[in-house]
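Hi,

I'm pasting everything inline rather than attaching a file, because the server keeps stripping attachments. The sequence lines come first, and each chain or strand is labelled.
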Amino acid sequence: MTMMTMMTMMDAIDAAIAAEMRTDPSVLVFGEGVATKRTALRDEFGAARVRNTPLAEGIIAGTAAGAAATGLRPIVDLLFAPFLCYAMDEIVNAAGKLRYLSGGQFSFPMVVLAHTGGGWGVGGQHNHNLEAWFAHAPGLKVAMPSTPADAWGLMRAAIRDDNPVLIFTDMALAYAPGELGETAVPIGQARVAREGSDVTLIGYGKTVPACLEAAAELARASIAAEVLDLRSLKPLDEAAILRSVRKTGRVVIAHEASRTCGIGAEVAAMVADAAFASLRAPVRRLTGPDAPVAACFPLEAAYSPAPAAIAAAARDLMGDHVPRDLALAV
Amino acid sequence: MNTEWMIEALERMMLIRAHEETAAALQQAGRAPGSCTAIGGEASAVGVVWALGEDDEILTNHRSAGHLLARGADPNRLLAEIMGRQDGYCGGKSGPLHVSASELGVVLTSTIVGGELALATGVALSRRMAGREGVVACFFGDGAACQGRFHESVNLAAVWGLPVLYVCENNHWQAFVHRDETMLVDSIAARAPGYGIEGARVDGTDVIAVHEAARHAIARIAETGRPYLLETVTYRLRGHFEPDDMAYVDPQEHASWAARDPIDLLRNRLVGSGALDRATLDGIEARVARRISMAEAFASASPFPAPEALTTHVYA
Ligand SMILES: Cc1ncc(C[n+]2csc(CCOP(=O)(O)OP(=O)(O)O)c2C)c(N)n1
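And the predicted assembly:
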């Protein structure tokens, strides 16, 4: 038996970076304060491969894209997700498009890290779940782990990926310890976090623990909820989503990001398109409001779908519909 | 500056300091999110803001409390905002980082570093188009001066002849990175001629020097019709954000700047010259402490915004 390693998501990401840097000399990491704050990496790999940058997200992302196109595998830390707006041009217009536009001559093996979600009371210019913006942009991959093990695995896969991958870390989960796994987690593969047959609860990031709590509550009412952790938002694991929906016939999708054009809309459309016949109830979306995030703690907490709301939505879907065999008999 | 002005400036700087220490203590007690305090920057805030006219406007950043209090912000409402309460300047939505108070002429605050630089260009354009005299003061850090936005903003304001007083508060830190690591030159003000404008660098620990430099800058904006770049050289005596162990800070460098604490400098100067006696100083200290504890009581009694506030103020 091997001892399980306990680590926070932040430490797991550093451990994954270190592991990849050890085996691949083209991997390097830079960003504002990276060398100051990630001291273990700096000590092991030195100043050339672990660099502080000036406070300038555009040039950080642009440098990463240029370096990635010409033989390096940069990892850049852009701190809080809203700062990606300064880096958006370089990520979207350069890294996301120039492989295609160059007829495949260049590729962009780079990883962009950013924090997202409530938990710190830092307000709307530091807390914004904007993952769907990047999922919408062609050429990019987007992942958002909910556990340290997945953060470790996704990070390793992202560093090895030949495409630009954005990894969002949820602030509320970032410093909670968890067991570390031992394998890379392929980008694009969802995880069944709990098996169930009556309703599928789909989440990512912070709504995964919320869905698990909701599932526990539903179990007390004899409703067997399956919880699916998307892990990757682009590509989405369509097969896993459809497999679960075909089994349960009911879907609740929960995310902290605003509703309009969010990941939930994509999942709902995909389910309606490909598994309409299996649906026994409408697809339900629980999301943050179409509003920026306030700094004050109670408003920040009210922003993200709570376990009770997820459970209530699932119950609602159960109650509105007679069991399948009866429905078929009509 | 006369003695009365200096004593008033001292009291205001002490009020700012006490406010910042309270904000940090509230974070430690779990009663407020972390603030970016401006301890060490009080002379820069008071010296510049007190050079502005009543109708002049201010844009600031995540380290705004000094600018707001120098401008006359109500500590009750400022602390309430930091604690996310309904009676705060922004109804609790800003928290410590984005506080604006249009009634004080603090028109906008951006905690996206460098964002305020871009916005200032537009605020100054409004002023110019309306034919209003005066200036728009834009406070930002040495870190913001590394953003492309700095160059873009100063260049456009220079080309369009906009009345912006750019105030770079160079406190030597950009979160956890020392300024030396991010630029090969010492001075940010030295960039001014590159944009065809004037600039100056001033000791930001000396409130009188800062004040005189700011007044000169404002006069030059009126005379030249162009923006002006003023750099106040200070040091961030407290961490970037609460909590911060400051393990990355060179203790010797910190100590050498702590010995030049702007409040101590002014107090010693006033006491040394006989302009300020112990009793008056005790009176100031007591007044400041009372004012801040009153503010804390007010803020603590103010309710959190109702859940409906989640979706108010999203659209006009
Ligand atoms: C665009 C952007 N990038 C990063 C941050 C995180 N951050 C907040 S304050 C800060 C340091 C800013 O340094 P400087 O401009 O020198 O101002 P100071 O904090 O020293 O007053 C950083 C990196 C941010 N708020 N916005």
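Residues 3-28 of chain B form the longest helix (26 residues).

If the labels don't parse on your end, tell me and I'll reformat.
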